[in-house]
What we know:
The complex is a heterodimer.
Chain A: H1 10-15, H2 19-38, H3 43-46, H4 48-74, H5 82-100, H6 102-106, H7 113-140, H8 145-171, E1 179-180, H9 184-191, H10 193-213, H11 215-225, H12 227-232, H13 237-263, E2 265-266, H14 275-285, H15 297-318, H16 322-342, H17 356-378, H18 380-414
Antiparallel strand pairs in A: 1-2
Helix pairs in contact in A: 2-15, 4-10, 4-13, 4-14, 4-15, 5-7, 5-8, 5-13, 7-8, 7-13, 9-13, 10-11, 11-13, 14-15, 14-16, 15-16, 17-18
Chain B: H1 3-6, E1 7-18, E2 21-32, E3 36-40, H2 47-54, E4 62-67, E5 70-72, H3 77-82, E6 85-88, H4 100-104, H5 119-132, H6 148-161, E7 166-170, H7 178-193, E8 197-201, H8 205-211, E9 214-219, E10 222-228, H9 234-242, E11 260-269, E12 280-288, E13 292-296, H10 303-311, E14 318-324, E15 327-329, H11 334-339, E16 342-345, H12 349-353, H13 360-365, E17 373-374, E18 377-378, H14 380-394, H15 410-422, E19 428-432, H16 440-455, E20 459-463, H17 467-473, E21 476-481, E22 484-490, H18 496-503
Parallel strand pairs in B: 3-8, 3-9, 6-7, 7-8, 13-20, 13-21, 16-19, 19-20
Antiparallel strand pairs in B: 1-2, 1-4, 4-5, 9-10, 11-12, 11-14, 14-15, 17-18, 21-22
Helix pairs in contact in B: 14-15
Amino acid sequence: MKLWSPFPLVALRRWWPSQNEWSLLVAIVLAIVLTALVDSNHTYFFRPFESLRDIARNSAMLGIFSLGAAVVIIAGGIDLSSGSMIALSGTVCSVTMLALAPTEMMAFKPVGSVVVLIAVLASLLTGFFVGTLHTWLITVVRLPPFIATLATLVGLRSFARALCESSTAVLTPTKSALINVADPAFKVVRDNVWFSVVTFLVLAFFTWLMLSRTVLGRHLKALGGNEQAARLAGIHTENVKWFAYCFGAMTAALAGLFYIANESVAAPVNQGRGHELNAIAAAVVGGCSLSGGVGTVQGTVLGAFFLRVVIDAVSKIIKTGADVYEGLIVGVVVVLAVTFAQGVNGLRHDRRILPGSLGLCTIPVLALLAGSLASMTTGAASGVAAGFTAFIALVALRIWENRSHDKKAQVSNSQ
Amino acid sequence: MNKQAEVAVAMRGITKQFPGVVALDDVTLQVRRGEVHAICGENGAGKSTLMKILSGVHQPDAGELEIAGQSVQFHSTRDAENAGVAIIHQELELVEELTVAANIFLGREPRTRFGFLNDAIAKRKAQELLGLLDASISPEEMTSGLRVGDQQLVEIAKALSLQASIIVMDEPTSALTDAETERLERTIATLRLQGCTILYISHKMDEVFRLADRITILRDGRHVCTVNKTETTASEVTGWMVGREISEHRFRSQQTVGKCLLEVKDLCVASQDSSQSVQLHNVSFRVHAGEVLGIAGLMGAGRTEVLEAIFGASNSQWQGTISLGGQAVSFAHPSDACKAGLVMVPEDRKRLGIFLNLNVTENISICSLFHAIRNGLLSKKAEEGIVAKPMNQIGIKTPSLTASISELSGGNQQKCIISRWLLTKPHVLLLDDPTRGIDVGAKAELYELIDTLCQSGLAVVLTSSELPELLTLSDRIIVMAEGRVTAEFSRDEANEKKIMTAATLA
């Protein structure tokens, strides 16, 4: 019986979602229900397992390095380089295999489990090296985290490509910016989605354990909340940062392995490009504060899942590839989620959405955005109609807001 | 002149609620034109909230506000500025990257016919305003290069440039040296001659009694009384503030000094950059078990730097010897000091002490988490068990163990930080200005706490910006000036005059 009353149970109280997490859960359910209703192909009904598999795989891949992004953000930093780290990790893995078993690799034959294991370890070790480099740049050279990881965001991708091209030039007949990965170990991972899902969930569990039940986790939060106080409380802040950035880079390295498994190729030019921002978005949507010290694993998991559900929903509804609108969707979701989390109190003191001349200029901006989106997805006629409707609605909102504002001002003046 | 015109500010029945607390409850107050009106009260009494309502930062839930007989309602600080009310906040709000003149005219920059900035006029006008205040600040100087006292004058000049006839000052002297405080007092006298009405918030009774014409006392968001300065005494006012009279008594009249626990010999610190940090020259002192050593000195005398060097928190290299319990030590990191039994409560609780994102329990347990590990993992239960003991002993008032630290008053937050360190069972406790920004009642409690700790055999080193506090608590006092120890007094020898003389020796 006791199992069913939530609060006296300490373990359950820890898992009990916060308000933000409840709203995310509700939003996820809403997004799924809406897609099921609006999608004219009814994919959720006719091919439920296929839909589930796609969402699960994408959420797990995004989730793995979102956890890293979340830990870095909770520790008061930022890691912009995870997308490039994904590319580098995949490249290191396939270059290692190519170096150890060149003939098998070129003939698309199995390379053997020992070689795969060494290659995987080499990738994870690269993650550790990159995390160490970040920490050194931040704590010793004293670069701001944004600058240090901006440099590696640009640098690591280029480094990965150079590594790929120079090693293929030496090890294979032709120089190439791609390395095909055909080992059955990677094929198994590609064909069995539960590999990535289980990896993600296990990683999430251990990250949760680390953040909420270990001294290190508490020190991470303390560091993110107030770095100077953390140092004066005897916390070795450099070491804690070292852990955070290594965790960030190593989760990205792990995700990179799933990327090459999924696409059967290491492609340093494009793999994971821009995905660091999706990870940061997942953490932020999940309740992590960019000023540090605040955030949970549960929230980040839900945030990553929510992003993928919405991306999937939109691609189903408008019947185009998800990648075209992915960035746009992530952008809109981040704005809406953070606005929602702030609540009404986050708005201006007079709570107007379209105040003054800024509001006036925002009306055509939003109307144009709505109109062009509608015309691209459903055709020119409905695009014009949507843009026009949005314009009229916003103008009406503006007039209404100004009226009620003036009224309030009048009331207060006459008092 | 009719009676209406003599009232500069009238507030009637002002009530303001914040989530969970009634900050102001039916407060009524009249301020006469041209007077200096002091607002006194403990922290959390509602002084700042009342002044923020007067200056348009907050809007009251109920009540009326009249400026010069006109009923007004402020929706923003702009509205208040237009009505001639300017506020100088406790934390100054200048843009450090801009010049003095640019700060004074921020948002109202003088322009040329073509719409470009007119720096010449801004400079000239700024010069005039600063001249009015007797300030030797150049309008072209960068604000970041100014001392706090000078920055405050810039804020006042800004208020004057707004043609403000009512100026609110929220604890203006909390970060000033005595010389700067004196100059501020002269400035206030000048402003008054020019017909300004001044509302002055302060904890410091001597200031209030030097400056104010009338004093209003608030307690727990209610108006207690408004009195003429001439008709009351400082102890009566503090009595009203806390609801009881506080007798200043000295602790530990008979006390036994144990063995020497901390000895600092010829501590020297070379400053890294000449403008900011202070150099220390041959600082030496000893502290014994069961003894409170006070370190007196003006701002910038090097008190904090001494404590930081001992605690291993200093960024610069030091020379000299520090021995703890007879053994020479040199701490590279605060954690080493903590392991050896020497801990420090830093100045500026908010910036260096508390973690706003952690709750009360987590704030206290942060240094002793390894004792809360059960089966390899942190146990909340064990953690709360560890924290409960000092919380009860010290008497921390908190809604619950898991309440947010921001819900606690300043005094209770400071007690949390002290408990945090007591859990590590230290032998030597360094307290850097522990009562700054803490109200009178909580101060008395902290004094008792320090006394108890001392009697239990701890050696305490205490710095404070308030001399009466040092005189109350310390067994011995050393005085610092410009990084040197200039005098040492035993408890019986020490008095404020002697200390001030030694502190101003250069």
